[in-house]
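input
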Amino acid sequence: MNKLPALFALLLILLAGPLAAQELRIATLAPDGSSWMNELREAERRIAAATEQRVRIRYYPGGVMGDASAVLRRMRLNQVQGGAFTVGDLAALTSAVNLYSLPFLFESEADVQAIRAEFDPLIMAALADAGMVIPGLSLGGFAYLFGRESFPSPEQLSTSWRVWVPAGDELSRRTLEAAGVSPVPLPLADVYTSLQTGAINTFASTPSAAIILQWHTRARHMLDLPILMTAGTIGIDSRALQRLAEADREIVLKEFGQALERLEQVNQRDNESARQALMEQGIRISAPSDEHAETWRRIARDTRQRMIESGQIEVPNLDRMIDVLNRLHEAE
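output
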């Protein structure tokens, strides 16, 4: 048999040198120098070293690729291969991501942590079915209500309370309407300007985000009642990951997963220190009575049930998660 063609092909491969590096382009709203970018840069270095430069990560920070919806469009066009997202940003792919961010469902972070081993994988699997691979979730802490005026009982709220809700968050909007206030849907980028102009006078945020975004300068009061759990992640197009060798895919997901774990610890510390900073800057943090807290939870529960029964929203595994939470509380 003539072996010359095979030998010639081998020679060409050897002369060509190592295979070109695969590049993953990842967009994020986080600016350089932020905790998110610092951890992502560390993951980038570790991935490059562990894959012997076969995989390179290129970041586009500071929102230069647009907001989350723009990044998702760019991913479909393969202009970027991934992005840093809040879980709410990914609701268009699967409503399963809403499990942890339902208003007034959790009473403490311990509630969320207790169920994550069972429900994190379900959220990740639902996103994978939609073509988005995430290495894990990084909790950002609870969002709380901030406002110019002190918060009365839920029965005393009125439409003069103009409350920001993220654009597209129908459940939060309906819950606030049921509470008697005026929800104002806005993209994140418009919140600060709207606080300045008075288009909104109330917002929900984690303590650390309220300071980072300077929203706290437009508030005097914070209601110490957890509204919903915030979370972020790094989403990568499954098609881009499939182009990597299996071992390199595992390295990428492991390093990004560890970065998300470190970020969650940073978020916890930042929220704790932000609480103290808010009080030092004159913001009064007041807890509602048990009766008022239960009223908020009842309004949210009734609104959620009506929307599910009418088919307006769908949250896979919600009944299962509520059953687990009920069992946890009964065991306490």
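quick obs: The mean pLDDT is 91.
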